[in-house]
Amino acid sequence: MALITSVPDIGLLGQRDKGFLDQISAKYPDLKLVTYKGVTDGNATPAWDVTKGLINSNPKLRGVFASSPTIALGAGQAIADKNFVDKVVLVGFDSEKQFLNFVKQPTLSNS
């Protein structure tokens, strides 16, 4: 499992991150978090790069939590590009049109 966020520990994103980490550790103590990565420039490309690298270095990766729509878009595109849609569950937040299109595809599990 990986957590990718825009700015760790800041405002609403920090609350999302904390809630995710708290619930994962409480309900799934054996689940390994391979990274908690902040991508701060506000576009999807760094999230795409990070996710692609995670898939390459962790072939058993089964989930990515993206705490913002931009991060979810980049991560979702990387998962699709690497043909890992059936292997990696992506969870993200928000209601931007492009983000919602990912929800309609099998790329994004929850929103």
Mean pLDDT: 83
CATH topology: Rossmann fold
Number of helices: 4
User: What's the CATH class, please?
Assistant: Alpha Beta
- Helical content band: 40-55%
Please provide a written account of the structure.
This protein is α/β, with parallel strands linked by helices and 111 residues long. It has a single domain (2-104), classed as Response regulator (Rossmann fold, 3-Layer(aba) Sandwich). The protein has helices at residues 11-27, 44-57, 69-81, 97-104; strands at residues 2-5, 35-38, 63-66, 89-92. Strands 2-1-3-4 form a four-stranded parallel β-sheet, with helices on both faces. β3 (63-66), α3 and β4 (89-92) form a beta-alpha-beta unit. The radius of gyration is 13 Å and the shape is globular.
Highlighted features:
about 110 residues, alpha/beta, Rossmann fold, four-stranded parallel beta sheet, about 45% helix, about 15% strand, globular
Give the arrangement of secondary structure elements:
Elements: E1 2-5, H1 11-27, E2 35-38, H2 44-57, E3 63-66, H3 69-81, E4 89-92, H4 97-104
Parallel strand pairs: 1-2, 1-3, 3-4
Helix pairs in contact: 2-3
